[in-house]
């Protein structure tokens, strides 16, 4: 099922990430961590489906998506064209789907925009006062790429670890790649739940590394096709 919804507001989050607030159809619901497929409501684009994660909570009046824009696509990229949209223009919204759902306290490991499925989960836990015992580890190229840094750092009970790979002089962050050696140094409890999201090669490497360190397969959650 699909329906058109209006863009209500757009805000800049980082230099290439924006917050899009959309109309919420009556009765529309999703689980924190889930996604949907959006399309641009214009000729030639309505059948081009692109997955985006909900970053709002279900009790909000509107829908929210936190979307990274990719440029230099020759005009063929959905996020590049979406960057030119403004409030009042419309998108095509479809049903929710996804396998990144909350299973209990643990560590969330993200690469770049892979943090977006975790936003609603952590926001819900924060709203419910249940963030104690959770940790977010996020890797980005540069400190300016970190999504919602101030919000995450202000969440009471959430332990946050940032690492950047291409900015050796950045302060307040680590300068390490998230690999097996990183996990050995920085993860104290390998028996906990792990939530993984990022580029496919990163997720595959993390699954292998965590498995090699003794994490149980059922404790690993990632987006499955």
UniProtKB/TrEMBL annotation:
<dbReference type="InterPro" id="IPR001433">
    <property type="entry name" value="OxRdtase_FAD/NAD-bd"/>
</dbReference>
<dbReference type="InterPro" id="IPR039261">
    <property type="entry name" value="FNR_nucleotide-bd"/>
</dbReference>
<feature type="domain" description="FAD-binding FR-type">
    <location>
        <begin position="1"/>
        <end position="103"/>
    </location>
</feature>
<dbReference type="GO" id="GO:0016491">
    <property type="term" value="F:oxidoreductase activity"/>
</dbReference>
<dbReference type="Pfam" id="PF00175">
    <property type="entry name" value="NAD_binding_1"/>
</dbReference>
<dbReference type="InterPro" id="IPR050415">
    <property type="entry name" value="MRET"/>
</dbReference>
<dbReference type="InterPro" id="IPR017927">
    <property type="entry name" value="FAD-bd_FR_type"/>
</dbReference>
<protein>
    <recommendedName>
        <fullName>FAD-binding FR-type domain-containing protein</fullName>
    </recommendedName>
</protein>
<dbReference type="InterPro" id="IPR017938">
    <property type="entry name" value="Riboflavin_synthase-like_b-brl"/>
</dbReference>
